[in-house]
Amino acid sequence: MKKNIYLCGPDLQLSEGGPLGQTSWRSAVFHFCLKRGIQVINPLTEVKDSLNSNGLSFISGDRSRKEVEKNLSLIDRCDYVLANLYSADESSWIPLIHAHNKGKQVIAWTQFPVNPWLASYTRASFEQIEDALEYIVSQVHDDQKSIIDWSIQYEIGLKEKSEKFPIEGETDFQYFPGTTDNQTLLIAPHATSYWHLGILNEGESYTGALTAALGRLTGVNTIVSSYCSAEDSLYTVGNPLNIKTTTNPLIAFINKLVQVHQLERIVIIRGRNWQNNRGIIVKSYSPDNYSKDCEAKLIEVIKKHSQMRHIDFTFKEVAENSDLARLCNALEKPIIEISIHKACLIPEMQRAQYHNLISMLEETINGF
After folding, report:
1. pLDDT in tens, 215-266
2. Beta bridge mates, 201
3. Is the domain covering 144-366 a CATH 1.20.950 domain?
4. Distance (Å, rounded) from C-alpha 92 to C-alpha 9?
5. Where in the chain is the domain with CATH 3.40.50.450?
6. 177 contacts 216 by C-beta, under 8 angstroms
7. Residue 170's closest CA among 161, 159, 182, 183?
8. Residue 316 has pLDDT above 60, yes or no
9. d(CA 311, CA 334)
10. What is 4-139's CATH topology?
11. pLDDT band at residue 13, thresholds of 50, 70 and 90?
12. Which residue has the higher pLDDT, 30 or 92?
């Protein structure tokens, strides 16, 4: 899994002609990490360029609560935080403390001697930026353990909100923008608790962590439910469905993403209980005007990679009058629902099984 690092702290110029060859510390870190396969999350650009829940761009000068929450969500996705604490203010300390509380590796670049309060919130502190970066590189490794540990950490964050409704005016899902040309939208609609026909359903544990990890691995646009939902937004859409006039925030946002990014397909990740058949069950929904040959190719990709990973695969036909069938016709894009047995979604106990699953799905999505 490609590692990423979040930058926080005031602007600071480095000495010209130094080892990093850049005058801006953020630019220096970016170029250093780029050469070593580490992704840099710079909140000054991420917030400005990312879509919000209405499909609009954040204004770079906006210091509102939404911008702060967006920055904190970026920290939730990162592996490391590099904090420049020379002349630091609250804009440096808040991300640092949040990252520490989330179990992230916080690396400080600061003057010595190090304040003992600072030391309690950081994994390591360095007086030279070059030393801080070399330390991060020494910690980066792309193995099975890193994928599983990241998923466990992410799931802990989801469970904290699973039975809470979002603040008024906020959505109950989180959007992670894509970073590649892959025209797939990945969704975990039931990562947290949700109401369906008057019954509260517990979240499908680890579908959110799995989906978020897949989004990072493949670089596709990703949506994960982040709070308890007052209704099952994706599976109780009404009949008939009118995308142009729907008041359903999740479906309206999906429609906006499909249009803006010209997405070609939607993949939904769901979980299944112990009493169900093991392995994965795949259902494919195609619009009325969509080639069945294309649908067959999509299923063949999943089947191929599941066989390579020794994961039981079942394909099921779908009812034409189902909610997802109506949704796929309204969006005019195919929808693939991948339902995963609970035995594959317990990384703390079945580490090899979980790693096998995520590798299979990564290859599948990259094969579209």
Report:
1. 988 989 999 999 998 888 888 766 545 666 667 888 889 999 999 999 999 9
2. 194
3. no
4. 5
5. 4-139
6. no
7. 161
8. yes
9. 24
10. Rossmann fold (3.40.50)
11. confident
12. 30
Q: What is the dihedral of CA 163, 279, 184, 212, to 10 degrees?
A: 40
Instruction: Give the C-alpha separation, 195 to 324, whole Å.
Output: 18
Which DSSP helix (H) or strand (E) runs through 92? helix 90-101
User: Which residue shows structure tokens 């579908």?
Assistant: 207
As a dihedral over the C-alpha atoms of residue 319, residue 324, residue 330, residue 332, rounded to 10 degrees, the angle is: -90
Identify the three-state secondary structure at position 117: helix
The two three-digit tokens of residue 118, written as one number: 């600072």
- The answer to whether the beta carbons of residues 206 and 148 sit under 8 Å apart is no
Q: Cα 121 from chain centroid? A: 25
Residue-by-residue DSSP string for 185-200: EEEETTSS-EEETTEE
Intervals of CATH 3.40.630 along the chain? 144-366
